[in-house]
Amino acid sequence: MAGTWTSEQVLALSPDAGSTKRGKSLANVAKWQLLGHAGQAVWGECKGSGKKPYRTQIDLSEPAFRCSCPSRKFPCKHALGLFLLLVEQLEAFGNDPPPDWVTEWLEKRAQTANRQQIKHKKAAADPAAQAKRAEKRAAKIEAGLEDLTQWLADIIRQGLAAWPNQPYSFWDQAAARLVDAQAPGLARRVRSLGSIPHSGQGWPERMLTALGQLHLLVESYGRLDSLTPAMQAEVRSQIGWPQTQDDLRLRVEKADLLVDCVADTWQILGKVVIEEDKLQMQRTWLWGSENQKSALVLNFAHGRQPLDVSLIPGSSFSGNLIFYPGTGLQRAFIDLRENTTAQVPPPTGNTIAAAIGHYAHSLSQNPWLERFPLTLAQVWPLPREDSWWLRDAARKVLPIAPGFQRGWELLALSGGYPLTVFGEWNGSTFLPLSLWSGQQFHPLGD
């Protein structure tokens, strides 16, 4: 198990460059008084500045970490150093049974997991209270949509020339009214409009597309009764209706046909982290080995809160995913995870034409699709002046996102040979997140 992890995967867990540097320095046997490894558990005692060593432990099943040091970073430098040492010098670890402080931690984790399962099973909302809350929210959203409809008519009447001169506060104020109307999904779309007039050549087309999608969403919400149940769920999700994980678990137990619980071996293909103001959003893309189904797992952190770093690109796990109801590509959350392994073979990729065909099909199911996962097989990186492209054997090309800074690394890893590349397609450009050179995996995302 330990031998399947790579140093690259371990360092991908690091919260910052400083932790990476210090973690590498601690990947030294001389700095550890005790090193042990048994099954999924790894532990060590690292010499510190005080009399007592820092006790560090890892549960490889996720992986999860714990350390007695005062650091607020997760994982800390000691955990990174211990993990790197395990990968690079497995022979330095003893095979004795775990000490009490390791066993207690593992038992506590198991007890916490059991309590959560019991809580999920007991969770039951009061149907009458739930219906009353939904009714109040619906009234607020309808009022917000009326205001948004008038606002859209006003800015269209002003014309394209007026939009670049509007300050960001103009768009933020409209978005804030939608937040008050409990429609955060619409608010996010309105707020994003402010940057489009300053996005360079072709911005009018992008602006009109975004406004068209916004108008379509407003009109669709007004005609919910005429839509299919799956499309109703998608529209509600795009508007910003809340869907808690406990609610979805209950719907799975009640055999709700709109909520799927899928058991599979899930490959973690790539992830990207976006930061806006003080909020971090992490998108992690999974692929089911047997059901051939994509899944998007979202994770949020505010301020200094840590993101979930346990989903490591290039690894896989056996478990259950519960999918949020909707159409096209669907978001999911992990309901059960076990048997994490650190090496996954490259998934079956597509030609560029076939991949774009899959995207077009999903777009026909969900016109508000913002990004789509593509796995491209047998492609070569191609530099063109100030931009990068991917080309396949049929000589079809796909533009790489302008913000991608690792084009030369792509070219070096290819060595002139074709690659399998995974990434996000937004309808205009492709953002590479990982690649396989032969059977060797390389992460490219954050």
From TrEMBL:
Q: Which PROSITE patterns match?
A: ZF_SWIM
One of the entry's Gene Ontology molecular-function terms is: zinc ion binding
Organism superkingdom: Bacteria
SWIM-type domain segment(s): 54-87
The record's InterPro entries line, in alphabetical order, gives: Znf_SWIM
Q: Keywords for this entry?
A: Metal-binding, Zinc, Zinc-finger
Task: Write down what this protein is called.
Answer: SWIM zinc finger family protein
